[in-house]
Amino acid sequence: MPVLHRNGRRDGLWAWSGAMPCRSCRWCASGLIDHCEAPNRGGPIDGSSAVRIDSSVDIEQAAFVGLVARASRIAQFAAAGPSTLITLLGSDACTLLTAQLLARVAPRVRVLATDDCDLERCDRWGIRHRGLADAGLRGDQDVVVIGGFGSPDVFATAAGLVRPRARIIVTEASEFDAAAARTIVSREVIVAGIKGGSLHDAAALMATGGGPDCEGLGFEVRSGGGGGVARFGVVVKVPSAAL
Ligand SMILES: [Zn+2]
Q1: Distance between Cα 195 and ligand 1 center (Å)
Q2: Distance 233 CA to ligand 1 centre (A)
Q3: What pLDDT score was predicted for residue 234?
């Protein structure tokens, strides 16, 4: 999860990935630095990997830059259009941000979750929602995104939702059983894992005011060494003097 830094009050807010790539492992050597095998998590920040947050973006929004980055990559991979049927399973912040981005191009987006409070949030964004138990496994969805769950039951639900040759996008380590595996094979489903996205692109999107609505997604900043852990898992570290 990205870390926010402020290099003095006048220099604005910066985000970086929280770990420096080693620049020497096989993945770094092939340009896949996001998949570095030996990242340095405690070292100094490499200025070239830090992304400046536009001054129009306040810290409450900036805290979500990492999740907006991941949500953008998920939305990109979904390759959605006006007629695409998409179901997102979960009510974590990343899933809700992704739903907002997808709804801009695919009106037939819906969110299935177990938390009534978070489903109400979808009303504000005009996104359809219903309880996970009422999924209706009709095998007609083009894309299913599995958010912050990870149980075999949820993967089985995803497998029951998708049409042949659909896409299931997994954002957390997720177990699945033999029955779900059989469905994946028989329906020739593409299963993709997505862990992150471009901080640079996310910061640029947020600078234009075109980012998803992050308000009320459980953000909290704690100054000092410990950083902040919000309800949805957003981690923000800001030196005390910067607040
Ligand atoms: Zn490396």
Answers
A1: 17
A2: 26
A3: 42
pLDDT score, position 87: 96
* Alpha carbon of 88 to ligand 1 centroid (Å): 33
Of 226, 210, 40, nearest to 16 (Cα)? 40
Whole-angstrom Cα distance, residue 40 to residue 37?
Answer: 10
For residue 4, which of 75, 62, 69, 67 has the smallest C-alpha distance? 62
- Which of 3.40.50.720, 2.60.120.10, 3.30.1360.110, 3.40.50.2000 would CATH assign to domain 68-193? 3.40.50.720
Predicted local distance difference test score (pLDDT) of residue 60: 78
Q: Which residues of the chain have pLDDT under 70?
A: 1-11, 42-49, 115-118, 149-150, 218-243
Q: Would you say 107 and 99 are in contact if contact means Cβ atoms under 8 Å apart?
A: no
- Kindly give the distance from the C-alpha atom of residue 34 to the centroid of ligand 1, in angstroms, as a whole number: 8
Question: Measured in angstroms, how far is the CA atom of residue 12 from the centroid of ligand 1?
Answer: 29
So where are the chain's domains?
3-63+219-242, 68-193
42 CA to centre of ligand 1 in angstroms: 15
Q: What pLDDT, on a 0 to 100 scale, did the predictor assign at position 233?
A: 36
User: How close is the Cα of 196 to the center of ligand 1, in Å?
Assistant: 16
- Measure 29 CA to ligand 1 centroid, in angstroms: 7
pTM score over 0.70: yes
CA atoms of 135 and 138, how far apart (whole Å): 9
Q: 240 alpha carbon to ligand 1 midpoint, in Å?
A: 31
